[in-house]
């Protein structure tokens, strides 16, 4: 039997439920906060033990708090995921049928692409051919915005990529649907979409950009970790940005001044 | 067998009677009261522990998803969409569901309407200041709702709708115009908040032209602390909350009874 959950665990879980995903630095701060509020024993570097207690109780409910790495900045995140319906149906309660179809098409485009991204033009084009119900250009833009807001997609300069949340939550679904099209990173073994690829045709392994940065950090003569061929790509810098930890500040500081009517409104 | 037949016909006639009286469309719901102890016994033997666990998980997820949108949950819907052939052991399942909500999530499933069997989820964890990650990330409509609940409470629990619209206009939220953040304000207030049971919006009898009034809804009564609301209003007006004697008395009474 796993130890029972205290109020500190419950508060942590509720916050995960309303946010869907939080960065590792947020998780660390939240761990401290939850323990302090409820007078629970707090050990700074025992976040994973703390989460394991929650996960032991979530198991029978087919939910899980899972760690994942962002393909963009290499930072770690924690996401609350559903273990049974790894299918897109997880999003079904929040989106209409044609919106879900648009999401699937976007995912197809991204998985098929070499860059691990899809341009807004390509997505808008395929919105014309939706089987469920066509979306106008304006509507498509609106839906794409919603996907970004709900943290399923990332957008930068008109290019859309799958977010950490999406990859962590839908990993199993993606492996089933795309099978061989899905490659994993040679370094971290997670699904690799935005990455560099070995140009040796019989090797062709993929490595995430942040993993490339870390792996080749101290090597002057970068070679493929698998076949030993020269690694012809530019080696990115290791990013140390921790800016995510402040992203929730505006809303929470606003709310803290007032006792809010709703004590809880999840991801609305 | 004959006994079963009788149970079925009895339940049917009862449903008919019910639907005539309350125009209740769901036959589903009436069936719940028709379950005999032998049926329960048989069902319990029929399903394995794994199957039961899975059902409990499904009901928990169903309720969590509904609650995300703050839609009150009808027992009949749980029966129709999730419980299905497990109906005979409904109460056993729902007891375990309640235990999960309590032990894992710090939430409480509350029946707000015992006649029609409607539930909502209430948070048992107090909101606190200085969260590093918000437990309820910015829903802008919350602010709108809070203003309305405050006005209603300070005005003695029931107000005419015009007062609400005028108050909002003073805050530059015009119910006649499309708002950037809230969209159709009138619809949000009189439809969404009402459906979520935060507000009641009812016709005032014998008014010509027809007028409406607002009250607190059942969810607001269960979820919102009147004492904290009063403290907030006090800060706003730079006044001691106790100086509103009647409101303070009501707020304190509500606090001790919950």
UniProtKB/TrEMBL annotation, chain A:
Residues 239-253 have a biased composition (Low complexity). Keywords: Chromosome, DNA damage, DNA recombination, DNA repair, Metal-binding, Nucleus, Telomere, Transferase, Ubl conjugation pathway, Zinc, Zinc-finger. Belongs to the NSE1 family. Its main location: nucleus. GO terms for cellular component: chromosome, telomeric region; nucleus; Smc5-Smc6 complex. It comes from Carassius auratus (Goldfish). The gene is nsmce1. It catalyses: S-ubiquitinyl-[E2 ubiquitin-conjugating enzyme]-L-cysteine + [acceptor protein]-L-lysine = [E2 ubiquitin-conjugating enzyme]-L-cysteine + N(6)-ubiquitinyl-[acceptor protein]-L-lysine. Component of the Smc5-Smc6 complex. This is Non-structural maintenance of chromosomes element 1 homolog. It comes from the Eukaryota. Residues 185-227 form the Non-structural maintenance of chromosomes element 1 RING C4HC3-type domain. One of its GO terms (biological process) is double-strand break repair via homologous recombination. RING-type zinc finger-containing E3 ubiquitin ligase that assembles with melanoma antigen protein (MAGE) to catalyze the direct transfer of ubiquitin from E2 ubiquitin-conjugating enzyme to a specific substrate. Involved in maintenance of genome integrity, DNA damage response and DNA repair. Its EC number is 2.3.2.27. Residues 239-268 are annotated as: Disordered. It is found in: Chromosome, Telomere; Nucleus. GO terms for molecular function: ubiquitin protein ligase activity; zinc ion binding.
Automatic annotation (TrEMBL), chain B:
Gene3D superfamilies: MAGE homology domain, winged helix WH1 motif, MAGE homology domain, winged helix WH2 motif. PROSITE patterns: MAGE (PS50838). Residues 52-251 form the MAGE domain. SMART domains: MAGE. It comes from the Eukaryota. Residues 1-35 are annotated as: Disordered. GO terms for cellular component: nucleus. Pfam families: MAGE. This is Necdin-like 2. It comes from Carassius auratus (Goldfish).
């Amino acid at each position: 039997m796993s130890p029972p959950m205290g109020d500190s665990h419950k508060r942590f879980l509720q916050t995960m439920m309303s946010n869907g995903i939080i960065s590792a630095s947020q998780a660390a701060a939240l761990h401290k906060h939850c323990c302090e509020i409820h007078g629970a024993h707090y050990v700074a570097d025992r976040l994973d033990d703390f989460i394991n207690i929650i996960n032991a109780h979530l198991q029978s409910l087919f939910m899980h708090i899972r760690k994942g790495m962002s393909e963009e900045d290499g930072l770690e995140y924690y996401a609350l995921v559903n273990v049974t319906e790894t299918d897109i149906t997880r999003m079904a309660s929040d989106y209409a049928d044609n919106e879900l179809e648009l999401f699937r098409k976007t995912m197809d485009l991204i998985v098929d692409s070499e860059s691990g991204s899809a341009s807004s033009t390509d997505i808008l084009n395929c919105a014309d051919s939706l089987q469920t119900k066509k979306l106008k250009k304006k509507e498509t833009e609106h839906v794409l915005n919603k996907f970004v807001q709900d943290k399923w997609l990332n957008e930068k300069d008109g290019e859309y990529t799958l977010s950490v949340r999406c990859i962590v939550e839908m990993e199993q679904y993606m492996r089933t649907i795309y099978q061989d099209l899905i490659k994993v990173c040679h370094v971290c073994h997670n699904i690799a979409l935005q990455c560099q690829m070995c140009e040796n045709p019989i090797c062709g392994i993929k490595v995430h950009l942040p993993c490339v940065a870390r792996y080749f950090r101290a090597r002057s003569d970068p070679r493929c970790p698998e076949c030993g061929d020269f690694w012809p790509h530019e080696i990115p810098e290791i990013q140390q940005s921790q800016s995510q930890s402040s992203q929730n500040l505006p809303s929470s500081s606003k709310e803290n001044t007032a006792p809010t009517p709703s004590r809880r409104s999840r991801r609305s | 067998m004959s006994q079963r037949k009788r149970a079925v016909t009895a339940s049917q006639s009862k449903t008919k009677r019910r639907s005539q009286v309350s125009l209740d469309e769901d036959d589903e719901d009436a069936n719940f009261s028709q379950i005999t102890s032998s049926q329960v016994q048989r069902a319990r033997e029929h399903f394995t522990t794994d199957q039961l666990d899975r059902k409990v998980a499904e009901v928990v997820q169903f309720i969590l998803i509904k609650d995300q949108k703050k839609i009150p949950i009808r027992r009949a819907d749980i029966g129709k969409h999730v419980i299905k052939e497990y109906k005979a052991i409904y109460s056993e399942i729902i007891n375990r569901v309640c235990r999960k909500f309590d032990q894992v999530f710090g939430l409480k499933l509350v029946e707000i309407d015992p006649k029609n069997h409607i539930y909502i989820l209430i948070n048992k964890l107090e909101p606190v200041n200085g969260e590093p990650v918000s437990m309820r990330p910015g829903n802008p409509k919350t602010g709108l709702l809070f203003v309305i609940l405050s006005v209603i409470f300070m005005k003695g629990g029931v107000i005419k709708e015009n007062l609400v619209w005028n108050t909002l206009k003073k805050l530059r939220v015009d119910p006649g115009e499309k708002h950037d953040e809230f969209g159709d304000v009138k619809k949000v207030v009189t439809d969404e908040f009402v459906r979520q049971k935060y507000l009641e919006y009812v016709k005032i009898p014998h008014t010509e032209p027809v007028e409406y009034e607002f009250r607190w809804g059942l969810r607001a009564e269960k979820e919102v602390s009147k004492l904290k609301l009063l403290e907030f209003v006090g800060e706003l007006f730079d006044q001691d909350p106790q100086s509103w004697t009647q409101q303070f008395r009501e707020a304190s009474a509500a606090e001790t009874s919950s």
